[in-house]
Design brief:
Among the domains are: 23-80, Tumor Necrosis Factor Receptor, subunit A, domain 2 (Ribbon), CATH 2.10.50; 88-151, Ribbon (Tumor Necrosis Factor Receptor, subunit A, domain 2), CATH 2.10.50. It has 4 helices and 17 strands. The protein has helices spanning 3-20, 182-185, 190-231, 245-279, and strands at 28-34, 37-43, 47-49, 53-54, 61-63, 68-69, 79-80, 88-92, 101-104, 108-110, 118-120, 126-128, 134-136, 141-142, 151-152, 162-166, 175-178. Strands 1-2-4 form a 3-stranded antiparallel sheet, with no helix packed on it. Strands 3-5 form a two-stranded antiparallel sheet. The longest helix has 42 residues, at 190-231.
């Protein structure tokens, strides 16, 4: 009788050792009696179904062979483990209860949910394309995560007391701010536009007035110049004496002629007086 507990303890120890090496229970885990036989409802994880009914539950299921696995407790066959090839790397090795989990080398990422192939990893501000390349986010969209599709900018803030202060770019979404800071941070508020329009109006009016003033002044100046021309009279030309000998000779001759004429006039007067005396 003492042998039975010893055998049971040894069996339990072996079972623990097998479990520690990744081995699974063998046979049918849940069954129902059917006459002299039992029919399996569920195999142990990592076991495939051999036959549905039989005299022993352990003979109804058997573990998957090395390099195969199963996730269905009533499959009649195990699936072959996936192999990571090319740019793929092993993340988790295949076991009897799960398939291989593959990943991709640095700079690449999985092209689908099961990572059956690798593609270039797109950075922020980009999105993957159908030809497995990357492109910049189109205008009006952004992407703040790696290898994700671009999302459209928001055109409306979530809260009614907020407004958009800055448009987004390929990396960030549009930015919102509270209404209380609108006057100091608004890129183009209504008040600013009205003020700018008023300044432009004043500038145009000022330039028009300046042009009119310039025209009036020019006309007045022209009228004054005409009046001055009418009032100006011609003055005799006075020639200054020069040292030219010919000029001096002409002046001297004129002087002598004048003296001679004066002398002749005096002689005539004397002769007339003498005649008058004789007659008397």
């Amino acid at each position: 009788m003492a042998v039975i507990p010893w055998v049971m303890g040894l069996s339990l120890l072996m079972h623990c050792c097998l479990c520690s090496f990744g081995q699974t229970e063998r046979g049918c885990m849940k069954w129902t009696p059917q006459g002299e036989n039992v029919c399996c409802e569920t195999c142990y994880p990592g076991n495939r179904l051999v036959r549905n009914c039989g005299p022993s539950p352990k003979e109804l299921c058997t573990p998957c062979e090395v390099g195969t696995y199963t996730v269905n407790p009533k499959d009649y066959s195990c699936s072959i483990c996936t192999q990571c090839v090319g740019a793929q790397v092993y993340v988790k090795r295949c076991t009897a209860t799960r398939d291989t989990e593959c990943g991709c080398k640095d700079g690449l990422t999985c092209g689908d949910g099961r990572c059956t192939f690798c593609v270039k990893k797109c950075d922020k501000g980009q999105e993957p394309t159908k030809d497995r390349s990357c492109r910049k986010c189109p205008d009006g969209t952004f992407n703040d995560q790696s290898h994700q599709m671009c999302k459209p900018w928001k055109t409306k803030c979530p809260n009614p007391d907020q407004y958009i202060v800055a448009k987004g770019n390929e990396f960030t979404d549009s930015m919102c701010a509270n209404t209380s800071v609108k006057s100091s941070h608004s890129p183009n508020p209504t008040g600013s536009r009205e003020h700018t329009s008023l300044l432009l109006s004043f500038l145009v009016i000022g330039m028009a007035l300046m042009g009119i003033t310039i025209i009036v002044v020019a006309l007045k100046s022209r009228e004054i110049r005409k009046k001055k021309k009418k009032t100006i009279t011609k003055t005799p030309i006075i020639r200054t004496p020069t040292d030219d000998p010919r000029t001096l000779i002409a002046i001297e001759c004129s002087f002598h002629e004048a003296q001679q004429e004066q002398g002749s006039s005096s002689e005539s007067l004397d002769s007339k007086d003498s005649s008058d005396q004789l007659i008397a």
